[in-house]
Amino acid sequence: MLDTVQAATPMKPSLDEKALARALSGHHFIGGRFVAPRSGTSFAVVNPATGHEVARAAEGDADDVDAAVQDAARAQKEWARMPARKRGALVAQCAGVIREHVEELARLIALETGKALRTESRVEANTVADVLEFFGGLGSELKGESVPFAPGVLSVTVREPLGVVGAIIPWNVPLLLMSLKIAPALVAGNTVVVKSAEEAPLTVLRICELMARVLPAGCFNMLSGFGPECGAPLVAHPKVRKVTFTGSVEVGRIVAKAAAERLIPTTLELGGKSPMLIFADCDFEATLAGAVTSMRFTRQGQSCTAASRIYVERPIFDRFVAELAKRVDAMVMGDPLDEKTDIGTIISTEQLAKVRGFIDEGCATAGATGRACSAMPTDPALANGLFIQPHIFTGLSNDSRLVRQEIFGPVTCVFPFDDVETVLAEANDSEYGLAASVWTNNLKVGLDLAHRLEAGLVQINQNLVVQANLSYGGVKSSGLGKEASLESMLEHFMHKKTIMVKYT
Ligand code: NAI
Ligand code: MG
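Above: inputs. Below: predicted complex with NAI.
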């Protein structure tokens, strides 16, 4: 049994993100309570804008995983017996609690991830409530079918929850990506154990605590820890009946192999190298604004759907690149908690080194030009912050590492093109297939490309992030299975049982 500890987290929303971070320190959340890790060990949570340690995170291991999964398994029996609409109503009620705490959650996520409050963190916190509300309304949609089989035999299918769901999440949009997993899992009658990302364990822990004010104990449990020590035992635990993972392709493969060994289903959401195809007949200003949003530079490019390859029809290529650089120049990089800031920091020194490596390589490539945009912050308090200037590259060839690999930083590569077939082939020439967008006023061209682009999500004249109610998930190495929609809940968090009744 783990020790229950009294965390000094406030009942009311707190706008003192540093005090809240300290209060959340050193805890998992299991069975409706904060608990200390069995090992007694913890690791640092660092504010990437200053380099200062803001909290300690509980370092979970297989013992903690076992405690959380056992509790979740106990709670699941009762939870699954609750009428589905009641479960949905409770999940929707959680949305209300989250809404009351949006400002608090936004400040806390900005503190631990370096994502700017106005452009990213507040938006993300609100989206969590939106996702919970959406799935909360779907309780009565967990329907089966009646199947014509034979006279005198009633044959029906019913949908049942899978049991305990293990959810492993990354650090880039941890609140949103977690909500896309826990909301459908819970409404479907499963209970969940979430393993947070080592870089961003605090805000998701607070959300777990807030939701426990509404949900029965044990329905939603949260562990922090490292991948091999805490994530792997979660996938391997005999009582975990499904795993849903968002993160790198590399770890996605490890998770899928471990799940295959146990013959449990997995959903994998694994990043991308998303192309943006811009035709000369597009609405130039709207497309420019769309490109700025698409590159996700407000999130320092740390987005799986970031437009990291932009193909522009030759007649407008030079003008487009020049205007794009100007737009990014006008963006303000600085303190994530400052309302004026557009662009915050990279998440960690490891990621910063990785992104720098790509930028240096691009700049050193013969024939390539890397435009450094925006400006580094000058505030001495941010001198150790993990800031990096966004880069727009031209002149790279399609076999450059910058064009082939997911950089997960504020870097985009722009190319000219002359004809539809060539640009389509280039766009599809990627290991990834998550998202794509086409910008044109010729709907014939746009729709034709929408059908022929190899991606899970194609948008014409916009490039939004994942939306509740729209199936989301990649093809090729970008993943397996869908999230965010009713179908994703039915297909990935439930199984169909056939019941036959011979009545004559
Ligand atoms: P990662 O894939 O290593 O981490 C994601 C999650 O998996 C974390 O919670 C981590 O603790 C967990 N994990 C790691 N090893 C595990 C294992 N053996 N078993 C179970 N769980 C494990 O991603 P990382 O290292 O943070 O980022 C590396 C790269 O991955 C990024 O540069 C980016 O290219 C990509 N990435 C893509 C994301 C997306 O949204 N598609 C999100 C985060 C990273
Ligand atoms: Mg990793």
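The chain has a mean pLDDT of 97.
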